[in-house]
Amino acid sequence: MSSPNEWWANVIRSTFLQIAQKPIVWPEKLIPELLHRFTSHEGYELYSDVLPFFQRLQKLRRDDRQEIRNDVELPRLQVGIITNSDDRVPTVLSSLGLRVSSRRLGSTDRQWTQDDHDIDIHWIVMSYDAGYAKPDTRIFEAAKKLKLLPYQDCLYLHVGDDVNQDYCGAMDAGWQSILLDRECKSNGLNLRLDRIQSLESLDQKILEMCSV
Question: Whole-prediction pTM value?
Answer without folding.
Answer: 0.82
